[in-house]
Amino acid sequence: MSRLPRARLFDGTSPALWILYTDTFTMAVGFYMLVPLLAYHFLQNLGLTIAVVGAIAAVRTASQNGMMPVAGWIADRIDYKRAIALGVLIRAVGFAALGSVDSVGLLIAASVLAGLGGALFHPASYAAYSALAAGRDTIRVYSTRELVSNLGFIVGPMLGGLLAGLDFRLVSWVSAGLFLAAFVVTVVGLPAGMSTGGSMQQLGFRAVLRNGAFLRYCLLAAGLSVLVSQLYLVVPIRAAEVLSGSVGVGVVYTAAAVLMVSTMLPLTGFASRTLAPRSILAVGAFCMGSGIAIMGLWPTLAGLLTGVGVFTIGQMLSQPVANAVVADFSHNNSVASYFGVLGLAHAIGGVIGSSGGGALYSLIEKGGPLSLAPWWVFLGWGTLVAVAFRLLGPRPLARPTERDPS
After folding, report:
1. Which residue, among 259, 261, 396, 268, has the nearest Cα to 6 in the 3D structure?
2. H-helix or E-strand containing 252?
3. Is the pLDDT at 369 greater than 80, yes or no?
4. Which of 142, 205, 211 is nearest to 334 (CA)?
5. Distances (CA, A) of 14 to 131, 133, 315, 405
6. Which of 18, 77, 185, 392 has a CA between 20 and 30 Å from the CA of residue 307?
């Protein structure tokens, strides 16, 4: 049984890949300095209810991931560079508005813009990595991409937490400015012609929809997204309750990112040498469900940090493997379309997770005999998804041929 190969950081990285890594880092800082703090801002500064906050998060998730199949198809036709550039511009507008408006209607409009921008650049960016990874170990490239993103996960919450203490509008404006910087990096640094376009992509998109094994994987990924979505809803709310304030939320996210950066490569390397992809994804799902439950059932600082740590381990295990599985399904043909269809699965899971998470957290706020039930629901869901991945998950990936990058 083949395993995932080890990832070697920045080994033989081409100049174009360096540009794309820079793009990813810039967008990650801009994203993580704003989105994790939105729930706190909406609740504490604008006085919205948890149900409304969950609904707004669901709108952003649906507008982004729900449009990804179309956006992926567009990216395969117009070129990944153009799709990334257009997407980051639209997201910059949406993010600037999220911290500047206070009515629910305008917040929903801003969330739609932010989501549509993400829909355009997300599948295009992942497909660009696949195109630029030609002749290299794709797993290594995607693992490095996750590591670079997590470096942004360290800087972003820390910067966002500090700016939020001054004026939350600064958080959204700086975040938007970073996406404008990503636009410049994309236009100036990325090469054109990273997609083939034309009728081949039309055939490729139809092939995606006929790939039963991939669609089954998308269904499992939707179940995983229910848990991932809690990173932007339950986790920041719980962190604010335990540590009091936006700075505390930033500290928690930064601590999680430091754990990722310092342990991700050895942890994923060990897992890939000892477990098949379906087992790694199963362990990741169980860890995320368990981490959420620990945060709630152990209502102290120690419980919060332990829960976030377990949740983060689940993320580290599942992220690079999930991306590698999609690249393997696509066989380097219409990659953006494959990531786009997967984005729809993430949208379904994200909407269920955001809306359901908001409803469950309402039970916690009300207190009473059912106040602890939601944490057991998250644990049960993580266990169910883990079992489903173990029984129905993707088969082991073929080991790519190693090539001397020199």
Report:
1. 268
2. helix 246-274
3. no
4. 205
5. 12, 9, 27, 9
6. 392
pTM of the model: 0.73
Please give the residue that has the higher pLDDT: either 49 or 281. Answer: 281
Q: Are 315 and 137 in contact (CB under 8 A)?
A: no
Tell me which residue of 48, 181, 153, 160 sits closest to 108, measured CA to CA.
48
Contact call for residues 65 and 206 (beta carbons, < 8 A): no
What was the pLDDT predicted at 339?
84
Q: Is 47 left (phi over 0), alpha (psi -120 to 50) or beta?
A: left
- Between the alpha carbon of residue 87 and those of residues 27, 76, 114, 208, 339, the distances in Å are 11, 14, 9, 23, 15
Looking at per-residue confidence, does 157 or 112 come out higher?
A: 112
Please give the structure tokens belonging to residue 301: 């600082």
Q: What is the residue whose two structure tokens read 């690249």? A: 327
Q: What are the φ/ψ torsions at residue 180 (nearest 5 degrees)?
A: -65, -40
Which residues have C-beta within 8 Å of that of residue 244, sequence separation ≥ 6?
none
Question: What mean pLDDT value characterizes the chain?
Answer: 81
Residue pair 64/144 in contact by the 8 Å Cβ criterion = no
Two tokens at 156? 């972003």
Residues 6+ apart with CB under 8 A from 184: none
- Angstrom CA distances, 163 to 111, 156, 203, 247, 317, stand at 21, 11, 48, 9, 31
